[in-house]
Amino acid sequence: MIEVKDLCFIRNDGDNKQNILNKLNLFVPAAQHLALLGDSGSGKTTFLHILAGLLQADSGSVSVNNQELSSLNERELALYRRKIGLIFQHYQLLDCLTVKQNILFQYKLNFPGQAASEFAPLVEELGLQNKLNALPHQLSGGEQQRVGIARALLNKPQIIFADEPTGNLDQKRSHQVVKLLTELCSERQINLVMVTHSHQLTDYFDQVKVLRDGHFE
Ligand SMILES: Nc1ncnc2c1ncn2[C@@H]1O[C@H](COP(=O)(O)OP(=O)(O)O)[C@@H](O)[C@H]1O
Ligand SMILES: [Mg+2]
Predict the structure, then answer these.
(1) Domain named ABC transporter: which ranges (predicted)?
(2) 3-state helix, strand, coil in the chain (%, to 5)
(3) Tens digits of residue pLDDT in 71-113
(4) Which residue segment(s) compose the domain that 47 sits in?
(5) Are 26 and 91 contacting, i.e. CB atoms less than 8 angstroms apart?
(6) Looking at ligand 1, which residue's alpha carbon is closest to its atom 25?
(7) Nearest to 199 by CA among 174, 168, 162, 173
(8) Total domain count for the chain?
(9) Closest Cα to atom 27, ligand 1: which residue?
(10) How many CB atoms lie within 10 A of CB 194?
(11) Domain harbouring 100, CATH code
(12) Which ligand is nearest to the CA of 21?
């Protein structure tokens, strides 16, 4: 569950104060999926980073699963970030690690010594079972993003934030990846917030918001 109230994010642009996010309000019930649209520069990534605890708002409140982010200290924020999954436009895979090693890397840091019981079923659902020993550069864009999704889901996140995960994919692959991502999140009751440029991908989502001039339209 995500609840945002009167969220403001202000930056100084030379002498001007720029209200990048201006009194945003949002409610995403548990397990629901939100698509966030808006022109380039409209503040989508900034908003996602605030929700993910990577950036601090200037005013207003952000509550995730009844935890008010601004009240968390550094240690609590680090614990919070462990419970979220991040998916990026440029995949952010480690070039010199195999697919299997990439998927397991963060899990091993988060859960040292614990067997990753979800690894095999996830790899199968994402159709990566024949690619486990490949290096990222040997994969197509769609395959690389499926590795990014497996890596995020393996950590059993409560929420996934995805920033233009289909930005580098053609239309067909974009639909495949978003369909898979929303299905996997539904099965696991995970809240999903996905930034996208494409109005054609919004059918997969419970809620759609468009950012413009710091507001939701
Ligand atoms: N830390 C910052 N300092 C100054 N300006 C920023 C900062 N972060 C973002 N911006 C500005 O905020 C606006 C929104 O950026 P961003 O969130 O990346 O947009 P989007 O993801 O929608 O393309 C842009 O004009 C950007 O230059
Ligand atoms: Mg962005």
Answers:
(1) 2-217
(2) 35, 30, 35
(3) 999 999 999 999 999 999 999 999 999 999 999 999 999 999 9
(4) 29-57+70-216
(5) no
(6) 41
(7) 174
(8) 1
(9) 41
(10) 26
(11) 3.40.50.300
(12) 1
Using a cut of 0.85, tell me whether the model's pTM lies above it: yes
The CA angle 78-84-90, to the nearest 5 degrees, is: 105
Among the listed ranges 13-17, 131-135, 169-173, 212-216, which one has the minimum average pLDDT value? 13-17
Residue 177 lies in a domain: yes
Distance (angstroms) between ligand 2 centre and the Cα of 164 equals 7
Hey, whose CA ends up nearest to atom 1 of ligand 1? Answer: 11
What is the distance in A from the centroid of ligand 2 to the CA of 47?
A: 9
Asked whether residue 77 is assigned to any structural domain, the reply reads: yes
Residue 9 placed within a domain:
no
Q: Which two tokens stand for residue 165?
A: 């995960």
According to the model, what pLDDT value does residue 14 have? 85
> Does residue 88 belong to any structural domain of this protein?
yes
Smallest CA-to-CA distance from 148 within 171, 128, 170 is with 128
Quick: pLDDT tens for 17-74: 899 999 999 999 999 999 999 999 999 999 999 999 999 999 999 999 999 999 999 9
Residue 198's SS3 state is: coil
